[in-house]
């Protein structure tokens, strides 16, 4: 398999900019892990350390998710339908 033949984990959105839901199992693992860690932070971090630390935690998780989407997703660009 050539490097350009590798499937993207996250396809580009059909309308707008960014990525859609995963099409590869690796992408689904990333999404499930992201939401699991988010819930764990809501249950285990927020009640004990407060909202500000939960917001910082959520932002850090989101930056990691964005980086993975950027590296393993289809190159983002503005799209408008099937063009």
Q: What is the spatial order of strands in the main beta sheet?
A: 1-2
Total helices: the number is 3
Give unreliable regions as ranges.
Answer: none
β content, as a range?
under 5%
Q: What portion of residues is helical?
A: 55-70%
What is the mean predicted local confidence, pLDDT? 89
Sheet with the most strands, sense and barrel status:
2 strands, antiparallel
Instruction: Give me the count of strands.
Output: 2
Report on this model:
The chain has 83 residues and is mainly alpha-helical. 55% of the residues lie in helices and 5% in strands. It is built from three helices and two strands; from the N terminus they run E-H-H-H-E. It has a two-stranded antiparallel ribbon with strand order 1-2. Helix 1 packs antiparallel against helix 3. The longest helix is centred in the last third of the chain and has 22 residues, at 51-72. The chain starts with 14 loop residues before the first strand and ends with a strand. The model has no long low-confidence stretch (mean pLDDT 89).
Pick out its properties.
83 residues; mainly alpha; two-stranded antiparallel ribbon; 3 helices; 2 strands; 55% helix
In short:
This protein has three helices and two strands, in the order E-H-H-H-E. It has helices at residues 25-44, 46-49, 51-72; strands spanning 15-16, 79-80.
């Amino acid at each position: 398999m050539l490097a350009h033949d590798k499937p993207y984990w996250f396809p580009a959105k059909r309308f707008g900019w960014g990525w859609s839901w995963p099409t590869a199992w690796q992408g689904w693992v990333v999404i499930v892990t992201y939401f699991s860690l988010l819930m764990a932070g809501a249950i285990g971090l927020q009640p004990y350390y407060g909202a500000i630390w939960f917001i910082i935690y959520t932002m850090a998780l989101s930056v990691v998710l964005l980086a993975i989407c950027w590296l393993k997703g289809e190159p983002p660009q503005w799209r408008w339908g099937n063009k």
